[in-house]
Amino acid sequence: MNTLTVITSFNEKRREKQIKYERSMLKELTIQMLRKKVRHFFGTLSSGAGVILDQAIEEGCFDIAIEAYLLGSRFSRFGYYGETVDQVKERSIYELEQLSDALYDFIQFWVNIKSEQKMDERLMIKCEQFVNEWWLEGFNRGRMKYKLRLH
Predict the structure, then answer these.
(1) What is the pTM of this model?
(2) Is residue 71 in a domain?
(3) Taking 60 as the threshold, does the pLDDT of residue 115 lie above it?
(4) Neighbouring residues of 138: CB distance < 8 A, sequence distance ≥ 6
(5) Residue 118 pLDDT greater than 80, yes or no
(6) What's the domain count of the chain?
(7) Residue 87's domain spans which residues?
(8) Is 94 inside a domain boundary?
(9) Residue 8 domain-assigned?
């Protein structure tokens, strides 16, 4: 019975440490940074239904950006210990693909985009690039924290 208590306590401590680390990483992000990258990759996304929904779409992109950023920061310790960016990215390829697909589906659902094959391919590429850009941002900032021993 005591062993189970210790394991539960260990898992709780690990989760607390992870939350603390993620909070410290998120302090470096600003809404302006997120908005600038969304506009860089997608322009102004419009649902055609009004400003409130358009802001919700933008915030949905923010959510994916933050998830990719935190994913990159979590994997940054491997870069700190000597793996290349490409090697580390391979470790998280499944999660990156899930985030890219989720962003693509989200935008396709809410934004009025003509359903042309060429347009769909360009949107998917932009979604992948957007997610990769935020993953790399989190990776680089996380690796810097490890180098400075701020984790």
Answers:
(1) 0.83
(2) yes
(3) no
(4) 25, 68, 69, 70, 71, 72, 73, 74, 76
(5) no
(6) 1
(7) 30-147
(8) yes
(9) no
